[in-house]
Amino acid sequence: MPPREGRHAVWPDRIRAEVVAAVQAAGIEHPWAHQARAAEHALDGESVVVATGTASGKSLAYLTPVLSTLLDGAEAPNGRGATALYLAPTKALAADQCRAVKELSRPLGHSVRAVVHDGDTPFEEREWIRQYANYVLTNPDMLHRGILPSHSRWSSFLKALKYVVIDECHTYRGVFGSHVAQVLRRLRRLCARYGAAPVFLLASATAAEPAVAARRLTGLPVVEVADDASPRGELVFALWEPPLTELHGEKGAPVRRTATAEAADLLTDLTVQGVRSVTFVRSRRGAELISVIAQERLAEVDRSLTGRVAAYRGGYLPEERRALERALHSGELLGLAATNALELGVDVSGLDAVVIAGYPGTRASLWQQAGRAGRSGQGALAVLVARDDPLDTFLVHHPEALFDQPVESTVLDPDNPYVLAPHLCAAAEEHPLTDDDIDLFGPATTDLLPQLEAAKLLRRRTRAWHWTRRERAADLTDIRGAGGRPVQVVEADTGRLLGTVDAGAAHTTVHEGAVHLHQGRTYLVRSLDLEDSVALVEQASPPYTTVARDTTSISVLETDTEIPWGEGRLCFGSVEVTNQVVSFLRRRVMTGEVLGETKLDLPPRTLRTRAVWWTVTEDQLDRARINPEILGGALHAAEHASIGMLPLFATCDRWDIGGVSVPLHPDTLLPTVFVYDGHPGGAGFAERAFHTARSWLTATRQAIASCECDAGCPSCIQSPKCGNGNEPLHKRGAVRLLTVLLAEAPGETDAVTADPGTTDPGGTDPGGTGETATAVRVGETAMAAGTGETAAAVRAVETTRTAGTAGTAGTAGTVGPAGLAEPASAQALESAAAGDADPEEAASGEAVPQDSGARSAGAEAAETAEAGAKVSEAPAPAGEQSGRVSAEEQPERLPAEEERE
Question: What is the pTM of this model?
Answer without folding.
Answer: 0.76
